Protein: SDR family oxidoreductase
Organism: Enterocloster aldenensis
Amino acid sequence: MDLGLRGKVAVVTGGSKGIGYAAAKVFLEEGAKVAICARHEEELRQAAGELEQLGPVYWEAVDVTDAQANYDFAEHVYRHFGSIDVWVNNVGATGFKKGEEYDDGEIDFMTGVCFKSVVFGCQAGFRYMKEKGGSIVNVSSLAARCPSAGRSTLYGPLKSAINNLTNTFAGEYCAHNVRVTCVMPGFTATPLAKANISQEELDRNAGATLLRRMADPEEIARPIVFLASDWASYMTATTIEVSGGRSMTLNPTYAYDKLGTGK
């Protein structure tokens, strides 16, 4: 299936690993040119070296919590490739604390990474899409719908704000034929998840999905790339859950084990 992305330019923030890296890879496989950014230059260099085996890649170390840094990055991408057709806001961070434990600096950090970066990314991408149209895809989280009480308390509310922001920007950008959509991943086997969450908890969450496993990053990347493509040309102000059915039933174990086996 040709998604019509050949020759298009796709920007992916947080593109050095995890979901962002997987999205960049799928865009390249579809014939797009890709620009990635992240904070750590060495990780970016390594990721870009791997991705360049598939197609044209521009990379730059960027602090996406800074508005001007986003605007400068967008300008550099435009100068390098001559266009920006897709912008994927994928950066996020989680703080493993209860709500009462966050101090002022930590709240600012979480807000900057999880929310402000998306605002600035939408602004930056739109500057180069408003004359000819384009697609912005935001990456939220299942935590926007199913809060994680007692651990990483701010993460869910900030991701929920991204869902609302997606609809708001979709309304503001529609007259320019710029679509804005959102993906809510469930538990995904990213380096961040594996490094910060115990195997016991990962297994428990996998068991709470209807599919009884975590997602591979590419399973999140494919819906992102679909939403960015012309195959989703009538979709905007839309948020899609990609969670293996994590939020859809109260008794996934019964559904999987009992109903599936007939015992």
